[in-house]
Design brief:
360 residues, 11-stranded antiparallel β-sheet, Rossmann fold, Jelly Rolls, alpha+beta, 2 domains, 5-stranded parallel β-sheet
């Protein structure tokens, strides 16, 4: 049997992650994982869980994952324990050799839990898949994560078991474009405030995304309680993945605190400009597309105002805006009134068309 560490020499990495002293690759953000080509007889993954996986009472937050073989989802599950063995291709010495493209995807978001991939064990050879001609990054919130896409009642609450990044507009738009995509998204978070159920509630400053953009991610759980480190403790290497275009979809949660308060909207504008400076400084060669409106568009004019001011101040011309058509229920809802898969499909078509215009 051969062993392959999940790193950029052996596989194509997706999303943001990091390694520990045991050569385990810890996947943080939605969509993180790997892709590879396999030639051989058997292929097995061993997954390890973070602190969330050891808390049975915390089952709404267990990391969700899927494995694809030649584009077909053959395995999916929740990491409900500290370790799990996942046979992907089962064979014996007498079996014929198989050739397949294999993809591992973390379906749930980083805030609730992360997932470690031990070195691949296989009877065969593993090689990285090539990069696609277009590279995207999507920065957002629960909509970008695919929150509640596998739940069909808006009255049902959040669970990682019903969150699927591959059903979100972000992943689907990349598919329509034949592009690679990485996401930096956290449910409930915003530019100046996390989600509040009334604008009379205090500003939720503990859930703002910009301070963590330069990190591997953010999680309420440690990768490993023995080592005590979490995604927010590790700086991200922006040279490891250089997007051609970055999509920013942030403001839906901010709007919950800003509604009815012009001064708060103006604070959103000023902080949005600061975040655009951060994104541009970290990715100077990437175009930027700022979008708004899948769930609501009340804050969209302020997003557009921030983009116009940033463009004037910075002199950076390759920044654009787009509005989605807000959902009206005709295509159904997911958990907590979030977009249904059909709504995500519609948004993906609009976004991919806009990206085609920008990228020519």
């Amino acid at each position: 049997m051969n062993k392959y560490i999940v790193n950029e020499q052996n596989v194509k990495l997706t999303g943001r992650g990091t390694w520990d002293e045991d050569d385990n690759y810890w996947c943080a953000l939605s969509g993180s994982g790997f892709e590879c080509h396999f030639k051989g007889r058997s292929f097995t993954l061993k997954l390890v869980g973070d602190a969330a996986s050891e808390k049975p009472a915390n089952d709404a937050n267990w990391a969700r994952y899927a494995v694809y073989v030649n584009g077909i989802r053959t395995v999916e599950g929740l990491l409900d324990g500290i370790a799990k063995t996942v046979p992907v291709i089962c064979g014996t010495e007498m079996s014929a050799e198989t050739e397949a493209d294999i993809k591992f995807v973390k379906l749930s978001e980083c805030a609730m839990s992360t997932i470690g991939i031990c070195p691949i064990v296989c009877d065969g050879e593993v090689t990285p898949l090539p990069d696609k001609p277009l590279k995207l990054e999507i920065i957002g919130d629960s909509i970008t994560c695919g929150y509640g896409t596998d739940e069909y009642s808006p009255e049902k609450p959040f669970r990682t078991a019903t969150e699927d990044f591959t059903k979100a507009y972000s992943f689907k738009a990349a598919g329509l474009l034949g592009a690679d995509v990485r996401a930096f998204s956290i449910s409930g978070w915003g530019i100046i405030s996390g989600y509040v159920d009334s604008p009379e509630k205090p500003q939720l400053t503990g859930q703002i995304l910009p301070p963590y953009y330069t990190k591997v991610g953010f999680s309420y759980e440690k990768f490993d309680d023995r080592d005590g480190f979490a995604p927010q403790d590790i700086n991200w290497d922006f040279g490891s993945y250089v997007p051609d275009l970055i999509v920013i979809n942030l403001g839906t949660n901010d709007n919950s605190w800003c509604t009815g308060h012009e001064d708060r909207y103006e604070l959103y504008v000023s902080e949005y400009i600061k975040f655009l400076n951060t994104v541009h400084d970290c990715n100077p060669d990437s175009k930027i597309l700022c979008v708004m409106g899948i769930m609501l568009d009340e804050i969209a004019p302020y997003m557009e105002k921030a983009v116009a001011k940033f463009k004037e101040q910075s002199g950076f011309e390759q920044i654009y805006t787009m509005r989605f058509t807000p959902q009206d229920g005709s295509l159904g809802y997911g958990a907590d009134w979030h977009p249904s898969p059909a709504t995500h499909d519609k948004a993906a078509e609009l976004l991919s068309a806009r990206i085609k215009e920008i990228m020519g």
